[in-house]
Amino acid sequence: EAVGRPLSEISLSPGVRLVLIKREGQGIAPEASSVLQPLDHISIIGPSEAFKGVSALFGREKSKVKKLASSGGGPISQWLLKKIDHTRYQIKLFEKNLEVAEKIAEDYPDITVINDDPMESELFQGEHLESCSSFLALDHSQEHNILGAMQAKNQGVPNVLALVQSMDFLRILKDTRIDHLYSPRIEAAKSLRQMTDSAPIRVLARLDQKVSLVYQVKVKEHSWGIGRQLVELGFPATSFIAAIEREEGVTYPVFTDMVQKDDVLIVIGPNGMKDFLRATFIDERK
Length: 286
What we know:
Elements (H helix, E strand, L loop, with lengths): L16 E7 L2 E3 L12 E5 L5 H7 L8 E6 L3 H9 L5 E6 L3 H10 L4 E3 L6 H7 L6 E4 L4 H13 L4 E5 L3 H6 L7 E3 L1 H13 L4 E8 L3 E7 L21 E7 L2 E3 L12 E6 L4 H8 L5
Parallel strand pairs: 4-5, 4-7, 5-6, 7-8, 8-9
Antiparallel strand pairs: 1-2, 1-3, 10-11, 11-14, 12-13, 12-14
């Protein structure tokens, strides 16, 4: 329904904003006049309850059930099994420990649990893992995970992930055929660094290196932007406040809302916005 129409003519639920268009590998910052094309990839932010309508608007086809294989039945595998949508994935999990395998099979009767080691090439062929869309190597042994991910890639699995702990392995394997290397330690360190970073303006993420960054801003008491409607703040084109965090919770603002002292703002905008954000929400008004 959205194809061929400028964004100004597309009605989105309150709080929902389109933040990035990816077209043929290039990032585009959405504007009111932007027209969506078939095969565009879009990034959207907003309250979770609004996304069913968003999916229908942008014509997401009913996806086929995908096949997913995983090795290891440890804490990360079990966390994944709780979070993943079991209606979208046909899951096959390999676990060498019989007791652990039986417990997972009991807790998740809709998945296939195999008490075996997928490192055996004959097992790969017998279970037709090459038909899986992804293989996740989540065993407690990082060496085992690396070998499993490489074997899966050699068997034709298009998307493979290996759980590793050592920084040395991350450096060595950087240019291998393994698609994703995941380290819980590094992710935990990143989260701790964000929690302890007291800077008033931080870049939380880069949706696109140039056109779409996610900033966090802690509003100071005597800054210029306090008490003004968002529409009055003069935000640069293609940038906006996506969410406001206050003591009572998170809100998704509209143009007539006002910023208050101690607000924590989530701002989407291009690279180089820090000076504007500092002058508007940090520096004392003159």
